Amino acid sequence: MNPEHLSAADQIGFPILSLLIMLPLAWGLLLPFLRTSRAVRIAALTGAGLELILSLLMLASLRPEVAGMQLMERAAWIPSLNAQYLLGIDGLAALFPPLTALLFCGVILASWTSIQTMPRLYFALLLALEGITMGVFCALDLVLFFLFWELTLAPIYFLISLWGIGPERRFAATKYTLFMLAGGIPLLFAILLLGLHHASAVELPLPGGLTFDYLALIEQPLPAPMQAAVFLLLFFGFAVKAPLFPFHTWLPTVLREGPVGLSALLVGLKLGAFGILRFALPLAPMAAREYFWLMAALGGFGAIYGALVALRQSNLRKMLAFSSVSHVGLVIVGIAAMNIQGVQGAIFQLVNFGVVAGGLVLLTGFLHHRLGSTDLASLGGLARPLPLLTAFFLLLGMASIGLPGTSGFVAELLILIGIFQASPGVAFIALFGVILSAAYFLGFFQRAFLGPITQPAVAAALDLRPRELLIAGVLGVLVLMGGLFPGLAQNVTTGAANGWVVRMAADQQQKASSMTGYNARRVPKLTSDDAP
């Protein structure tokens, strides 16, 4: 990396990314030593708040015009594997640490009174999950990335099984863990293939030629058969966690049985979709173009399938689960376009997941805390006793269906423009999914929030408390800012997104030129004896 491309944090050598990872982990270790539950909650919120401030400082220190990695940290880690402690961030990932920190602050506030059993362990696990998630976004060594990826399983398993709100919460925790372990197997195989191929390509004995450095691996072209294998392994491994149809079945189960705070994190932070954008396509670009049909088919079908199933739901949490599946399909369609509009739209939509989808789940949790249920049979007429909750639920819901003036409109418009350039047919399929999203949300909203009050518990329900209003208000402001001033987010991602698209296009041109040279070598030259 050239010195002129270093940010201020790079130049002074401040390990801000390591601090982002370690601060929540270390802070969580302090919670068991606090005496009262109130002190535990205040300490957890303080730690999450410090993490949010640190993530904003990280974002401010980046130079958006630089396409490459910034704030890099490198140290020896496992010499026998030539694996390194390698961290870095660029415009593609820069918005996700602040989003993660903000969402964890919201989850802690939302869990303030609903978590009564073992609050020390609950908030410690939340902070541990926050630090590990930061590692997923920042790791540039594939072994280190895989470590963070798998470490997310432990806190999520215990959060679901110990604090779930459904009778089958332990089954949900086991199902989630088994799905994620199954998805990790192809990821591990792909990482091993990449490292071993690099060793053979540079013709150095192991472990000298072995590397899992993402920046080195994307510069080492893979042969076509290996590209196909690596792409498919990475794509399907990440698709499980996204979740992309048909690997989505764990999400409705977890949202029905798990704690509301964790549910908001799982629908708000789409680590699987980020992995496809960050690793699957750049590491195997030629195979990604050859399998465009696969990404477009799974993404488009997932968008339609998720919306159609959401139309039939009578439980708000399950409706939001299938809504998430539908929107993930739309993100994959945007990534498959492999142009600047599609990529920026996909990134924008991934950020929207944290604000919009995560916010809707938190508001659903407020309803469950008041009424004990989110089934339609227990709802109806909510707008009268809960006008503030209704207003914010409608605002976030309008963003989820792409209403102009909200952040959802910008994201969906960019995705549709991007995929229309690549395949107009897929664009119309994606547009149909967007239309269906309006149908299921407005239909459910009308039945749950409007009309007469039929349940005494609804009539006696109290509106948003101050801390709940703070959560909803911040998310509502972000939705409107994203819709009215989308350039604020796009300016952060433009440089890196352009670099991503240029790399994919350059690889395609390299393939075309190599094929042209190959065909030229196969065409025999005419000699004077061959001339008629």
Kindly summarize this structure in a few lines.
The chain is mainly alpha-helical and 532 residues long. Helix content is 72%, strand content 3%.
Describe the structure.
It contains 23 helices and 2 strands. By secondary structure, it is mainly alpha-helical. The chain has a two-stranded antiparallel ribbon with strand order 1-2. A hairpin with a 4-residue loop joins β1 and β2. α17 runs antiparallel to α22. It is globular and about 75 Å long. The termini are far apart.
Q: What is the CA–CA distance across the termini?
A: 59 Å
CA radius of gyration is 24 Å
Sheet with the most strands? Answer: 2 strands, antiparallel
Per DSSP, the total helix count is 23
Strand content: under 5%
What's the helix-strand series? HHHEEHHHHHHHHHHHHHHHHHHHH
Ordered list of secondary-structure elements with their pairings:
Layout: H1 8-12, H2 16-30, H3 37-61, E1 70-78, E2 83-89, H4 96-110, H5 119-138, H6 142-151, H7 153-163, H8 169-202, H9 214-217, H10 224-241, H11 250-257, H12 260-268, H13 271-283, H14 285-290, H15 292-311, H16 316-337, H17 340-371, H18 387-400, H19 407-422, H20 424-449, H21 456-459, H22 466-484, H23 487-522
Antiparallel strand pairs: 1-2
Helix pairs in contact: 2-3, 2-5, 3-4, 3-5, 4-5, 4-12, 4-17, 5-6, 5-7, 6-8, 7-8, 8-10, 8-11, 10-13, 11-16, 12-17, 15-16, 15-20, 16-17, 16-19, 16-20, 17-18, 17-19, 17-22, 17-23, 18-20, 18-22, 19-20, 19-22
